[in-house]
Specification:
heterodimer; A: alpha+beta; two-stranded antiparallel ribbon; 57% helix; B: alpha/beta; 4-stranded antiparallel β-sheet; 7 helices; ABC_transporter-like_CS (chain B); EC 3.6.3.- (chain B); nucleotide-binding (chain B)
């Protein structure tokens, strides 16, 4: 008997029992569908996180000062010295405070960053108008501000804010620059902020020193050496207190993100495996019922010359057809569900061809494994017994 | 008739016994049965129920193997063959006609007739042609697309006969082929079988119906697992 003939028989049998076939497939459909959808969402999310981390620059170090005793900050002078370490491209110490900005009657509560000139290239900001903060602004405690695009829009509408004055917590600042729009990241919006010189911020918020420093190495290769040197200097400043500061690097963050998404994928794979297993058991159950129901048919087929192999193939092809069809419908369901999720919630859903092929392959395998026992049972029926069966 | 083959009988059964173990007791369904059937014969094996005629039929049809004894079909000893070889012999050498037709209800008449040819591995076009020819022979050329449920009992049995004929096997085995039919259609089916026999087909019938057996050229009686050849038709017990 030819394969095509077996396929034709399988489709005939599936079609003549539509409801039952669909219910049988349901396990595989749901299993494959959930794998495709969940893994798509998982991959989309981890890709998003990865992009965000990378957009910060992979050769970025973040120093956070937690403090110990009275010294809870790093003096600005100490912080800028990190820029002198070999291999460092930028070092931007910064403070961040919430403040109210006012222009005329318009007001906005924003994050006011006090920092130096290195902050802008380091964070990847570009100018839409005006200029950035410069070293001279810091030296002379200038009351100048650079506004993020969202903040500027809130206060000025579509007007150009450069040259205008805003009040930050009641103090007049001249707007010298407007940042180009950057979009949001996992850490929140990048456009709702105002940047002022660090020295001005120290006075204004009455806090000496900085709590955080961004340091960017010239290259990935230089990162480890830079990190070691930064840590050595911090150790000198905060004697006997290595929990007074934390140094993160982006590679670590990427690694963490990757391991999180790896664990997630594994968990999803496990869930999918279990649901496919349940689907497989469903197929086996129905195939066993089908073999019993069709004992007489098997007897007739054997009487007119079907060999063991013919019967085995017939039932195996049938169970594989059911599971493969289920897998195919499941892929469709998963893609549709992924699309629905990505349009409802703002999550990227990334479907990989590998995953689709893998789950299709797995559902076919399920059909073979769980169809084998019923098919074998059918093939081993004795023709006279099967013919006598009512 | 195929005279060239007369020196080698089509069916030769020698001292065949079949025993069943039933709750510790051994039941002898067949007890040393010997039978020879030549090409072109029309033999009726007649006996009451429980006489062993169904067992004999199963062995003749290679559906079952004897406990002891030998069976040559077209000169080939088939009583000890493995299952796959028996399937092949059933496919090529035997055409079954069952009492309850045994058609597959989900297939059309044509597809039912094609079935043995599918298992023979015959290609689509040739297969369809041979199946059509067989249906034409039994007078059902206009019913090819009908399913068994859409056909009368007599028509269903004619489809079954067409299926038996399609593979042009040397022997047709009928197990009470008219048992489920009324007397009119049963007469028609018998007429068809006689016609086939006249065309040269060898037919072995199993029945307990004397009227049916009377139409055969040769009657063999079986009772309690023992064959009695050449007896007159009149001495069949009327207990059925």
């Amino acid at each position: 008997m030819h394969f095509a003939q077996g396929l034709k028989m399988a489709f005939k049998s599936i079609r003549s029992n539509k409801l039952r076939s669909i219910l049988t497939m349901l396990g595989v459909i749901i299993g494959v569908g959930s794998v495709i959808a969940l893994v798509g969402i998982g991959q989309g999310t981890s890709k998003q996180i990865e992009e965000q981390v990378q957009s910060l620059g992979t050769n970025l170090l973040t120093v956070n000062i937690l403090g110990r005793g009275v010294t809870s900050t790093l003096a600005y002078e100490e912080a800028v010295q990190f820029a002198g370490i070999e291999g460092v491209e930028y070092a931007a110490p910064y403070n961040s405070n919430n403040a109210t900005l006012k222009y005329g009657t318009a007001g906005a509560g924003v994050n006011v960053i006090g920092t130096n000139a290195d902050y802008f290239p380091l964070r990847g900001y570009e100018l839409a108008a005006g200029r950035f903060i410069t070293q001279i602004d810091l030296d002379f405690h200038q009351k100048v501000a650079v506004l993020g695009s969202a903040t500027a829009e809130e206060l000025f509408g579509s007007e150009n804010p450069v040259g205008e004055y805003v009040r930050i917590n009641g103090v007049r600042y001249k707007v010298v620059g407007l940042l180009a729009e950057k979009g949001s990241s996992a850490l929140g919006s990048n456009d709702e902020l105002a940047v002022i010189p660090l020295t001005t911020a120290e006075r204004m918020f009455r806090s000496k020193g900085v709590r955080s420093v961004y340091i960017q190495a010239e290259s990935m290769d230089a990162l480890d050496a830079v990190q070691a040197e930064v840590e050595a200097r911090l150790a000198k400043i905060f004697r006997n207190g290595d929990d007074a500061y934390r140094v993160f690097n982006q590679a670590d963050m990427l690694e963490t993100a990757a391991s999180v998404s790896g664990t997630l994928s594994l968990a999803l794979g496990g869930i999918a495996g279990i649901s496919l297993l349940v689907g497989g058991i469903g197929i086996m159950n129905i195939m066993l019922v089908s073999v019993t129901e069709r004992t007489r048919e098997i007897g007739i087929r054997k009487a007119i010359g079907a060999k063991k192999r013919d019967i085995l193939m017939q039932f195996l092809i049938e169970s594989v057809t059911i599971s493969a069809l289920g897998g195919l419908l499941g892929v469709g369901l998963g893609l549709a569900a992924g699309r629905a999720v990505s349009s409802l919630v703002k999550i990227d859903v990334v479907h990989s061809a590998d995953m689709i092929a893998l789950s299709m392959g797995f559902s076919i395998l399920i059909g073979v494994v769980f169809g084998m026992y019923p098919a074998n049972k059918a093939a081993n029926l004795k023709p006279i017994d099967a013919l006598r069966f009512e | 008739m195929m005279d060239g083959k007369t020196e080698r009988p089509l069916v030769r059964v020698e001292q065949v016994s079949k025993e069943y173990a039933m709750g510790g007791e051994v039941l002898k369904a067949l007890n040393g049965v010997s039978l020879t059937v030549g090409y072109g014969e029309f033999v009726a094996i007649i006996g009451p129920s429980g006489s062993g005629k169904s067992t004999l039929m199963n062995i003749l049809g290679c559906l079952d193997t004897p406990t002891s004894g030998k069976y040559w079909l077209e000169g080939e000893e088939v009583s000890r063959l493995p299952e796959n070889r028996l399937a092949e012999i059933r496919n090529r050498k035997i055409g079954f006609i069952f009492q309850n037709f045994n058609l597959l209800p989900k297939l059309t008449a044509l597809e039912n007739v094609e079935l043995p040819l599918i298992y023979r591995g015959m290609k689509g076009a040739e297969r369809r042609e041979r199946a059509m020819e067989a249906l034409r022979k039994v007078g059902l050329a206009d019913r090819t697309r009908h399913r068994p449920a859409e056909l009368s009992g007599g028509q269903q049995q004619r489809v079954a006969i067409a299926r038996a004929l399609a593979g042009s096997p040397p022997v047709l085995l009928g197990d009470e082929p008219t048992g489920a039919l009324d007397s009119k259609t049963s007469g028609e089916v018998m007429e068809l079988m006689l016609e086939l026999n006249r065309e040269g087909h060898t037919i072995i019938l199993i029945t307990h119906n004397m009227d049916v057996a009377d139409q055969a050229k040769r009657i063999v009686r079986i009772a309690d697992g023992v064959l009695d050849e050449g007896g007159g038709a009149a001495c069949i017990s009327p207990r059925d």
